[in-house]
Write a structure and sequence with these properties.
Shape: globular
Largest sheet: 8 strands, mixed
Structural class: alpha/beta
Helix content: 40-55%
Strand order of the largest sheet: 17-24-23-18-22-19-21-20
Number of helices: 30
Length: 827
């Protein structure tokens, strides 16, 4: 809409004189790629103003968003009542507005997020020497300091004998005040800084590896607005330079090209790593790794495995992490534009001041149809990216000089120490295999060999066109990646405050008591510690945790501990095995998502996959059922019986349904219905009837609660049926507190005790010892069970029954980045 109020009035008078009511439509243009409520409110506000001037306005509003070829239509009447309510609130606010309220930005949001008020807010805060500009300060800390009468950075820098949790902030403020003093004398002065020492821990400058001829300095440029029409943003430029300063730029303007350049970069990086295992890829911040994880998961296969191997072997080095752990810098932030001031990097004055500007320039490129303009825009972006790569290289060189000056030794990887302990190069490679489980190196090596075999099987299946089964082989490896990455990130937190703010950690645990308790076959160390009772956390009694010792490397973490009791400010935890007595402070880091090893599930899928390749006997139980199910073929009955003729009668008669299930021939039958339709009761009746006939039944689901529900109903129907649940500790009880479901330590233990029906999770049923142990497998709430978990259990029986609630969604809830064919639910 273009023009002014007088022009609108003139047009209104002219058209009214012709007995014609003018109608205008509002078009709101935004660079953002996604619609937000405030955009709609803004368009409604414009429409209200136009209606007040002209007397009428179109009910059709339009939002033209970044990355869209056409505007999005919004109907005014759908939001009119909401707009009027918000307008009334605003008018009420204006009527009660007090001009005497101090014009001071509050610390409840970053200064850079204040929109049009950002410049004014910064100027105001700079005049006041406000605490908001102390790097890394939090809102709660500002409020606490204000209560202490400290409102300026200078006051914080001069604070004497600060509390332990304010000591680092005081040092940070002191450095920023010194930098400000220097720049009053020389605007181009380098910032004040301080090198941090960590007593031999592999953090900070001690985690910066020696240089290699094969080193790469890497930077990405992304276009998030691409996500509105294509579900994901676009990483349109992969830029990297080498030690000689040779710069490579790889461009992509859609997701297909993005996958091509990502694969090209990963192959090049992996080739350099093979030539020199001591080389590294340096980047600044987590953005590059996050983007590569997303893209590599789409490509899968060889590229995904190469990337995962480099990731798990710490080939990628986040220089931001090195800086945050290794330096205190007298700047407001630790962005590369601030940190590079340490090594005298001076950037050219151009159109690009930051990454947000590159987004704007790339948007202009996508909208332009002029060839020469498009070329110049890409050249400008490439120059900006190249400067980032060169700046990163210069910064790393400066950091290495500080390493030497401060006599900080690089702490080698755990793999290098393993070599010194007598492990062969091949064994060390296996110990570093992503996702390998085992409490001892020997167990981990054995599991790693299975994973390596799985990679070969997956590749061969994919080459034969069996993509679905092939991708399922690596499902659980992918699924565990986020948990492994988050756990390692906690172990190498930027500073102690990061652990204190993480609800899956308990930091600054001071040891009160520790003792060794002799058990029949092992020693348990019991440790009592105190911590700040106001520290937020979600840890509970029984949770598995890792113990991080202050001043030690992440590789020295004690991984297998569990919380025995937890009261306000006091924690008691046990560690199995012999450990060196602890000294100083500790941190407890949750390992709940890492505590279940996926080896049995991976093994179950691998056995069926090898059968599909002809590497095992086709008579492996469950193979025919799994193959028929994955190929989406309908179930069949023994003796050529027609399943269609039996289904209608069996819907409401458990006996007929039990006969139908008993006659399944290497097939899967699905029972489905809406909530409350009696599926679980029907299933329990069928299981009870089949158990009466002497069949061995396995019951599983995605949760213990679902398994318990089915088992209790079966036991209640017929007390003579032996029902057992594989679970640690105790038994399941009925409503009258009688023991109707016995517990067992394993599936085989339950069967040896004469169980007719055994309930267990996928972890237990997938074990190799349970191949062919049952006649039938029942899975309750199958709509929540990933297809991979069902395939891993398929070897325990020749046929299965899946029970689920009717739903139209096929996508399972997963944690890792999975390919579509691997992330579906079992039904």
């Amino acid at each position: 809409m273009k023009g002014d109020e007088n022009e609108l009035k003139r047009l209104r008078e002219a058209r009214q004189s012709a007995d014609f009511r003018p109608t205008y439509a509002v078009l709101e243009v935004k660079l953002s790629g996604s619609a937000k409520s405030e955009y709609v409110l803004q368009a409604l506000c414009y429409a209200d103003l136009v209606e007040g001037i002209t007397g009428t306005v179109s009910d059709d509003l339009y939002l033209w968003l970044g990355g869209h070829q056409a505007p999005v239509h919004v109907h005014r009447n759908k939001f009119l009542h909401y707009f009027r309510a918000k307008r009334a609130e605003f008018k009420e606010f204006l009527a009660s507005f007090d001009r005497e309220i101090p014009k001071h930005p509050r610390p409840d949001r970053p200064v850079d997020s204040l929109g049009p008020w950002t410049v004014a807010a910064k100027e105001q805060l700079e005049r006041e020497d406000a605490l908001q500009f102390v790097a890394g300060i939090r809102k709660a800390q500002i409020e606490r300091l204000n209560k202490m009468g400290i409102t300026t950075m200078a006051q914080l820098a001069a604070l004497e004998n600060p509390a332990s949790n304010l000591s680092k902030l005081r040092k940070q403020a002191e450095l920023q005040v010194e930098t400000k003093r220097r720049r009053m004398l020389d605007p181009n002065a380098a910032p004040a800084y301080r090198v941090l020492h960590h007593s031999g821990a592999r953090v900070g400058l001690a985690s910066l590896p020696p240089e290699s001829e094969m080193d790469v300095y890497f930077d990405l440029e992304g276009f998030p607005l691409y996500a509105f029409e294509h579900q994901e943003g676009l990483e349109y430029l992969f830029g990297f330079s080498d030690r000689e300063g040779n710069f490579t730029e790889l461009w992509a303007h859609d997701h297909a090209e993005e996958e091509e350049i990502a694969a090209q970069f990963i192959r090049e990086a992996h080739s350099r790593w093979e030539r020199d295992p001591e080389m590294h890829i340096y980047h600044y911040g987590p953005y590059e790794i996050t983007a590569l994880k997303r893209i590599a998961s789409r490509i899968a296969g060889e590229i995904d495995r190469k990337f995962a191997a480099m990731l798990e072997n710490d080939v990628f080095v986040d220089v931001y992490r090195v800086v945050r752990q290794g330096l205190m810098l007298g700047e407001r932030s630790y962005s590369i534009k601030k940190v590079e001031n340490l090594c005298g990097v001076s950037r050219k004055e151009d159109d690009l001041a930051d990454a947000q500007s590159s987004v704007g320039l790339y948007h202009r490129f996508r909208c332009s149809t002029v060839k020469e303009e498009r070329r110049k825009l890409l050249v400008t972006i490439a120059e900006y990216n190249k400067q980032d790569c060169y700046s990163l290289s210069d910064l790393i060189g400066w950091l290495r000089k500080e390493q030497i000056k401060e006599k900080i030794q690089y702490v080698p990887l755990k793999a290098q120490r393993l070599e010194a302990e007598g492990f062969s190069e091949e064994q060390i490679d296996l110990l570093n295999t992503p996702g390998a489980c085992g409490r001892s190196p020997q167990r981990k090596i054995a599991d790693a060999e299975v994973i390596v075999m799985g990679r070969r099987v997956e590749e061969e299946l994919t080459n034969r066109g069996n993509d679905t089964l092939g991708r399922l082989v690596s499902f659980h490896i992918r699924e565990g990646r986020p948990a492994r990455a988050q756990f390692r990130q906690r172990l190498t937190a930027y500073d102690e405050n990061d652990l204190l703010a993480d609800t899956l950690c308990i930091g600054r645990v001071k040891i009160v008591k520790q003792e060794a308790i002799q058990r029949q076959r092992s020693v348990v160390w019991r440790i009592v510690g105190r911590f700040d009772p106001d520290q937020p956390h979600v840890m509970q009694v029984g949770d598995p945790v890792a113990v991080l010792r202050k001043g030690r490397t992440p590789e020295d973490t004690v991984p297998y501990a569990s919380i025995r009791s937890l009261e306000k400010g006091v924690v008691v935890f046990d560690i199995r095995g012999t450990v060196v007595p602890f000294e100083g402070e500790l941190a407890l880091v949750s390992t709940a998502e890492l505590s279940i090893c996926s080896a049995p599930m991976r093994g179950g899928i691998l056995r069926l996959a090898q059968t599909a390749l002809g590497n095992q006997e086709p008579s492996l139980p469950g193979y025919g059922m799994a193959r028929r199910f994955v190929e989406r073929r309908p179930p069949v009955l023994r003796g050529g019986k027609s399943i269609r003729s039996m289904v209608d009668d069996a819907r409401s008669d458990p006996r007929l349904l039990a006969d139908l299930v008993q006659d399944l021939e290497e097939s899967v039958l699905i029972i489905q219905g809406p909530p409350g339709s009696g599926k679980t009761q029907l299933t329990s009746s069928v299981i009870q009837l089949l158990a009466r006939k002497g069949l061995k039944i396995a019951v599983s689901s995605n949760s213990h609660a679902s398994i318990n529900n089915v088992l209790q109903k079966v036991a209640a129907l017929d007390p003579d049926i032996a029902v057992r649940k594989v679970a640690r500790g105790g038994v399941e009880k009925g409503e009258d507190e009688t023991r109707i479901v016995q517990s067992s330590a394993s599936v085989q233990h339950a069967l040896k005790k004469g169980a007719d029906v055994v309930g267990a999770t996928v972890f237990q049923i997938s074990l190799e010892e349970n191949i062919g142990a049952f006649d039938l497998l029942f899975i309750d709430e199958a709509g929540q069970v990933p297809l991979a978990n069902f395939i891993s259990m398929a070897g325990c029986a020749k046929s299965a029954v899946l029970v689920r609630i009717c739903t139209s969604s096929l996508r399972a809830t997963t944690h890792g980045a999975q390919l579509p064919s691997a992330s579906v639910r079992v039904v």
